[in-house]
Every structure is written in C-alpha cells, then in structure tokens.
Amino acid sequence: MKIVLLSLAGFLIGSIPTGQIIARSRGIDLQQAGSGNIGATNVLRTTGRLPAFFTLIGDMIKGIMAVLLARYFEVGILYEGMIGIMAVLGHNFSIFLNFRGGKGVATSLGALIVYAPLAGLATIVLWLVTVLITRYSSLGAIISFSLLPLTVLLFDAKEKLPISVLMSIILLMRHRDNIGRLIQGTESKVGKKA
Q: How many domains does the chain fold into?
C-alpha cells in the first residue's frame, strides 16, 4: 500500500504543469502555442528565456521531490526509481491537462540527480554539449538518454540499470515525432521563435 500511495504521489507531483502555469501568467496557452508542448523548450520559444529557466527548474524539482519522498519512506533502490518515473509519467500525462503534457526531459533529469547523481550529471553534460553544438534540444535529449544505461553502469550501480533503461525507453518514445523531424531536417532549433 505504501508503494501504491507513493506512486500516486509521484504522479501527482509530476502532473503539476509548471510550464503551463508560468506561460499562463504571461497570457499564453502553451498547448495552443509553438509546438504545443508544456516543457522549457516551448516556453523559451513562446515566452522567453527567464520563464523557460523557471520552467526547467520547476520541472526538475518535480523529479527531485518524487525520489526524495520515496527515499524518506525507505522503499529501496528499485522503488525509488519507479516513483521517480511516476513523476515523469505525471509530467507527460498530466491529470490537470486531460492527460496531455510534455516530453519529460527535465523531470527525468531531476529524478536522476537524486537517484543516480553521477549518471545524472553526465546526462546533463551530454545534453548541454549536444544542444550547444547542434542547437537541437530534442537531439540532446535523445543522445543523452540513449546513453543513460551506459552512464549508469560507468558511474553508478548496476542495480539501477533497469530503471535507467525504462527511463530511456519512455523518453525516446516521447521523442518519436522529433526523431522523424530530425531525419527530415524540419526540427526547430533552440532559440527559434514560435
């Protein structure tokens, strides 16, 4: 029962639509603007740098809170990761947005920072380097999370490998359309206005 309640709590935490709340305060409905995504990249395109920064931090905090909550209740490594993933799923399928949401990158990074700190840091670095070189946020996410299982094995414990694989699969599935646009050369770059 404890695991079920914590999983629900993780999903609820993740469901808080940070980007939508911030954009709404500026008179913008993210689901009707830009890519329609509620994440920091779309906030940057439609609302500006500072709102995007606060969205990024807010979405990361959701993942951080979920894993810390699980750790506080001493549920063990596997369930810590699962509850972190529940926050990611909450972000992706928010109950406050009719089960629509974002791609889960920042929330995943937040969960990783607590769950597997060195692997999380490596993932952030890989994402940043890719974005700085290519200016494609989606490509940064795709590359860094594709390598997540490897970074977990290199920098953390093999017990965390199942969670890292599941997190990678979820993120890559959410980026299917982006992968198609990258292949076609039609993906929007970071900084391009909506």
A: 1
User: Does residue 190 belong to any structural domain of this protein?
Assistant: no
Rounded to whole angstroms, how far apart are CA atoms 190 and 87? 25
Domain ranges, residue 168: 2-184
Give this prediction's pTM.
Answer: 0.93
Q: Which band of pLDDT confidence, cut at 50, 70 and 90, is reported for residue 97?
A: very high
Quickly list H helices, the chain.
2-15, 18-24, 40-46, 49-72, 77-92, 105-115, 117-134, 137-146, 148-155, 161-174, 176-184
Instruction: Look at residue 90 and tell me if it is in a domain.
Output: yes
Distance of CA 149 to the CA centre of its chain: 16
For residue 166, give the amino acid letter: L
Q: Which of 69, 140, 141 is nearest to 111 (CA)?
A: 69
Q: Could you tell me if residue 193 is inside a domain? A: no
Look up residue 90 and give its amino acid: G
38, pLDDT greater than 90? no
In the DSSP assignment, the letter for residue 76 is -
CB-CB contact of 188 with 35 (8 Å): yes
Residue 60 pLDDT more than 60?
yes
SS3 100: strand
d(CA 57, CA 18): 9
In this structure, what token pair is assigned to residue 44? 């940057």
Tell me: the pLDDT tens digits for 101-118?
A: 999 999 999 999 999 999
